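Example record for the data management plan.
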Amino acid sequence: MQRVISIVGGTGAEGSGLALRFAKAGLRVFIGSRNLDKAQAAARAIAAQAGAGEVTGHTNPDAVSKAAIVIVTVPLSAQVETLKSIRASFASGAILVDATVPLEIAIGGRLSRTLSLWDGSAAQQAARLAPPGVSVVATFHALGAEALTRLDQPVDCDALICGDNAEAKAAVSEVAETIPGVRAIDAAPLDNARFLESSAALLIALNLRHKVRHSGLRITGLGAGEVHP
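Corresponding structural encoding:
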């Protein structure tokens, strides 16, 4: 698959973990950051660990301009500013994947609680800020950074995918399933993204309670035809 993936916030734990897995699968990955030197240093480290793919560092707008799929993995406190800064850089027909979890910690609250947002979810907030013609998909909330960095083990977690464009969901599902152990599941419209974001907070609470860092979610009872968009 010669698909280009840009990860905005790619120097953080979640973004770096996804970049590592995609590079390992042979995809071309652009690491985006506000700081070019930081992005390039992260890209070199990820490329060395993955031993495959092509990973390069860029400023956020530059990374976005080169990709068919742009994954945003920034904290809630940086989401709006980041989306505004890259809004004019999307290529025509690009897909924006939002993995933001609106945690209370953004305003000094608890790490395992979510905030209620005016738009309904962080993904819907992203959709409001996205430029016309860019489809927004919500996913990757349950794929923990710790599990992503363990390249010797599959990621034991489903990727629930919400969005209003079936073709965009199918494209993101294909990318998600390049990660060993990950199964993509169509979780219906973007309006359901609030449930994905809340599930991430639940997993954080479980990790804290059971002193682990890699709990995940599996959905049972779905037939093969019900899994992919």
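Summary line stored alongside the record: DSSP finds nine helices and eight strands in the chain.
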